[in-house]
Request: fold
Amino acid sequence: NNAWDNLRLVSRSQNNMNASLRSDNKSGHRGVGQRKDTGAWYARLKVDGKLHLLGHFASFDEARNARIEAERVYFGDFSSTQPIRV
Reply:
């Protein structure tokens, strides 16, 4: 609900962190993809206009967890991901 008590003052960048997945996303998780040439999974994150490659991983789960952890570090309370379930 958009009552003043429920709203918070944020920048456009912080507000965009809550955007839904793009329709052309193939991995199902923001910032995680798979290389076509090697099949390796990668994770990346854009902060203040600068792209950070978080690494290449053998599995989707490893890449996703790297992205989630980076979101916690860089975005804090504005991270849109759910906690890692083990």
Q: What stands out?
A: The first strand starts at residue 32 and ends at 34. The beta strands are 32-34, 41-47, 50-57. The mean pLDDT is 85.
